[in-house]
């Protein structure tokens, strides 16, 4: 494909010599993005439906207003009774949700654990590796060096490095690297929305492989991952149109935050996702190391460019189309955010995306039930709706607990008659402990034994999660499509 | 690359948890039904054993949301919380006088849950028909010790069997769950506390001697943390309800002492009616549930931890505080830290009226009553 926005590895050296380098960096004197950006036609043309372009549909707004009005009237008529009912409903949700989360982890305990080596194939299928890059000048070199070492026939591999055209630093960094022939730099037109899925959709147009995988700039996939994925696609369930590799961190021992983040990822990718997969439930994708047959991905219309957790949304759409997500016997090592503020910003985006995804698919509730079945739809409600709700409500209950322990005020006790108190205590004492225990168990499969004592700090991590959740929820109102960029390239490299 | 020891499942190898669940239920449901019938039948229609009365009383007070119910739930090593909590879901199906049977259903639930783990343990020592043998052993234990007094120990043993079963599994993630069951044993009976303590001790000794096995150390760490957490919850409950984290542990040797005899209490009730007809009886401690009828007849009081502030303001009658004396098996159940002379600062005054056989009888008044010099 001949395209001015596309520079292959074969041309890169010549391009540098002929001054293309300066042309690529032209974005530096461009107008501020917010002034000149619009939504181009190509973004809108193949939008999946429904999508997150509209945050709340008209019906949803109406429903929200009716619910708010009903709540106000109920509070005016009988405030204590209404608050008691809300309290009971929240606590029951807590109890059921925690049982659900523990159940999916428990289910994964029973899975057999076996090694899986990629066997040779007569002919390896062509594979496209797509890496969206934005302000990733620090990571680019390491990324390219790592991808060069991937154990896959060079001639069957295409690596698309998607750089935004108004990101001169990354483009310069890429231009300074001598790229092997399988690499191509794609300049993604600067446009609204400034999201990774929009870049991926753009890159998808240039993909020539039979299969495609998405990596992030800081990813270090295991070298045989592509072969394993190709083999799994060839041998596995034909309904599986996406393979999610395990994700974990190579800088987990950097500080307390990276340790807790590693525990969280181990719990999610090594336990929860396996539990969901074994229950044949929809699997929210992890945003990176997702392998797809290109044909199926195009059929699904790629990613929703307006959704800031496009991966989770795609996981649901895959399920609704009757396809499945499989879990790949391979790990991609990532760089964990090691500072609190960037971590909260990253998490706020994830929660915002979860809410977006929930709202988007709530608009097609009937279709959800028809395509997933009632029981499987519950997974969707738990994974997205309940997760966000619990994270948002947690601080209220923590504050109530602390207030009551400090003051023993009768006002709090009145809202917790015996039955309610039992539910609350079970959730607080048993539920929370069970989650900490689950986090400890999650450290075992990868032999991260040193992290086990750190699991006791998980409540601190939950507090940060809730801060991120509130930030994300508020940002959904003020800037729904804003992509909180996570800085990478701290200098630590995978050994 | 960081080491990755255990590999994820390939996409084609999905395992449904349903068959495992169905296999469990195939044994669990009949076992629960049979054990329920056995335990309830064992009590008979009267339900006249002493612990039955105490259990019924605790459940009744808990449901009535009385502070004494919560205090009775956590305030004694003799009556640990879990058996009562396990009974709670069955209470709505019973009449108030029969709440004690809820305890039988709770016990049946836990014993039925222990059937397959016990069968697996028996199989590991090459017992023929291990599941049937396990069923027989559990039924026998329920038939012999399944009354409310020894039932707590069966709770504890059932959880110990489950813990042992998990410890014997191959996967570290499964072995690391054993601590949960040791913790449940700890929450069921004081023997569970002793068991958990020795298990922890053994873990520490093994850890010291097997430094080269980080996996075992990690599993031990998780199990130890789980047990410690359950103990901490028990202390927290005591702090929250009794305002003393070690309330249940006070006078431990006495608390873990002898049982009760119905005849002794019938004798006591008759004695009070005969010798102190003018006074209103006041009792303190779990054993007071066994004097329920007397207290109802006389309008007396039952506290878990008596002190004068707990009496209603309007109470000016002459009260008879009944305290188990030396050599009385009931003493084991009394939480009242009272000595002759009533020098406890919370007790504003009382007069030793009589000392008869194994009982001490004190005269006292309500909150604003006269302080009697001894």
Explain how this protein is built:
Chain A is an alpha/beta fold and 495 residues long. Chain A has a single domain (1-495), classed as Alpha-Beta Complex (Spore Coat Polysaccharide Biosynthesis Protein SpsA, Chain A), CATH 3.90.550.10. Chain A contains 19 helices and nine strands. Chain A has helices at residues 9-17, 20-24, 33-36, 41-45, 58-77, 79-109, 137-148, 168-175, 196-204, 225-235, 256-278, 294-299, 310-320, 340-362, 365-372, 374-407, 410-414, 418-442, 458-478; strands at residues 6-8, 127-133, 157-164, 183-188, 211-214, 220-221, 240-249, 290-293, 324-334. A nine-stranded mixed sheet of chain A has the order 1-4-3-2-5-8-7-9-6, with helices on both faces. In chain A, strand 2, helix 7 and strand 3 (157-164) form a beta-alpha-beta unit. Chain B has helices at 18-43, 50-63, 67-74, 81-87, 100-113, 115-124, 130-145, 148-167, 172-175, 178-186, 190-209, 214-242, 252-255, 262-275, 292-298, and strands spanning 280-284, 301-303, 319-324, 350-356, 359-364. Chain B has 374 residues and is an alpha/beta fold. In chain B, 54% of the residues lie in helices and 7% in strands. Chain B has a five-stranded mixed sheet, with helices on one face. Chain B has two domains: 21-247, no CATH class; 262-364, no CATH class. The chains are: A alpha/beta (495), B alpha/beta (374). At the A-B interface, strand 7, helix 11, strand 9 and helix 18 of A face helix 9 and helix 12 of B.
Task: List strands and helices in order, with pairings.
The complex is a heterodimer of chains A (495) and B (374).
Chain A: E1 6-8, H1 9-17, H2 20-24, H3 33-36, H4 41-45, H5 58-77, H6 79-109, E2 127-133, H7 137-148, E3 157-164, H8 168-175, E4 183-188, H9 196-204, E5 211-214, E6 220-221, H10 225-235, E7 240-249, H11 256-278, E8 290-293, H12 294-299, H13 310-320, E9 324-334, H14 340-362, H15 365-372, H16 374-407, H17 410-414, H18 418-442, H19 458-478
Parallel strand pairs in A: 2-3, 2-5, 3-4, 7-9
Antiparallel strand pairs in A: 1-4, 5-8, 6-9, 7-8
Chain B: H1 18-43, H2 50-63, H3 67-74, H4 81-87, H5 100-113, H6 115-124, H7 130-145, H8 148-167, H9 172-175, H10 178-186, H11 190-209, H12 214-242, H13 252-255, H14 262-275, E1 280-284, H15 292-298, E2 301-303, E3 319-324, E4 350-356, E5 359-364
Parallel strand pairs in B: 1-2, 1-3
Antiparallel strand pairs in B: 3-5, 4-5
Helix pairs in contact in B: 1-5, 1-7, 2-3, 3-12, 4-5, 5-8, 6-7, 6-8, 8-10, 8-11, 10-11, 10-12, 11-12
